[in-house]
Amino acid sequence: MKNIALIIAGGVGARMHQDIPKQFINVKDKPVIMYTLEAFQKHPNIDAIEVVCLDGWHDILRAYSKQFEITKLENIVSGGETGLQSIRNGLNDIAQRYTSNDDIVLIHDAIRPMVSQDIISDNIRVCREYGNAITVIPCTAVMLKTTDSVTSNDQIPRDNLKITQTPQTFFLSDILKAHKEAIKKGINDSIASCSLYVELGKKLYLSIGSEKNIKLTTSEDMEIFSALLETARPDWMRK
């Protein structure tokens, strides 16, 4: 009964306008991905870490992992042409080492470095109790509906809306079956594991997220992350 973190670090980060992938940008003398890996490294219930990484960056990632003592890192595999294919590559590699029906996998974006110990713990709890766990936060904004991207005269009630984050956690055997089913049905463009489950008609169970669990997509996000590091730091970030 193992809990395996699958970290997706296959993006090139074009919207950052940087020469290196955003997950390898240094913030406070540490690459973004190392903050992410440290969160899972320090969680007592995480048994192993797998990373899906861009080609050409595997050795760099291994060197950083040695420097920052990420001892739970078991393997690094290359990404696919899409995020869904990258996840599939990681899952298939994990399945070669873990075969128990009780093993679960926490799929997480490398560029969400502020994931907390509480978020990881609740993902494990919810998944083991209900079968899967999708990290979410409430929708607090007014949601407008538009058909032309310019005007709107309608809104979507926000009370029943949730904003998804990662981790998204599943029993390994279940998510592997879901991917096989998706291939048979020609579902190849799901943007996340949760949307894949929805397209397959499967029920999802919600787990607690946090506004601080931001995804670093733009340079402004990087500024927010840097500012958050300057505030009171959670226990898992302290040396």
UniProtKB/TrEMBL annotation:
In its UniProt record, a GO molecular function of this protein is: cytidylyltransferase activity
Q: Name one GO cellular component term.
A: cytosol
Which keywords does this chain's UniProt record carry? Answer: Nucleotidyltransferase, Transferase
SUPFAM superfamilies annotated for this entry? Answer: Nucleotide-diphospho-sugar transferases (SSF53448)
Q: What is this protein called?
A: 2-C-methyl-D-erythritol 4-phosphate cytidylyltransferase
